[in-house]
TrEMBL record:
Keywords on record: Signal
Signal sequence extent: 1-25
Protein name, per record: DUF2845 domain-containing protein
Pfam families documented for this protein: DUF2845
Domain of life assignment: Bacteria
InterPro entries membership: DUF2845 (IPR021268)
Length: 100
């Protein structure tokens, strides 16, 4: 059975999708960190960032008349020559963005 060029391209695309990381994930060495991970897990996988900044605060949970305020922190990593911004709300990774 011969595979046509169009079928070959489709098969290659499907295989690439199977082995690619989600857009909300980042490879640090042999580990993968993704949105939802705890800050300690990211630090264990990626080590210390080259930059760490508090960029704001967010009202997160309202319980009766009390509001839980969480810090928004940005950690910058340089991985394979690219800068990656990891944003945490409290202790949870909520956004991974490539910095240009």
């Amino acid at each position: 059975m011969l595979i046509r060029p169009r079928q070959r391209a489709l098969l290659a695309a499907l295989v690439a999708m199977l082995f690619s990381m989600p857009a909300h994930a980042l490879r640090c060495g042999t580990s993968i960190v993704e949105e939802g991970d705890l800050k300690i897990e990211v630090l264990q996988a990626c080590g210390e960032p080259i930059s760490r900044e508090v960029i704001g605060y967010i009202d997160s949970v309202r319980v009766n008349d009390r509001i839980r305020v969480m810090k928004i922190e940005e950690l910058i990593y340089q991985i394979n020559g690219n800068y990656q911004s990891l944003e945490f709300e409290g202790n949870q990774l909520v956004r991974i963005t490539r910095v240009r």
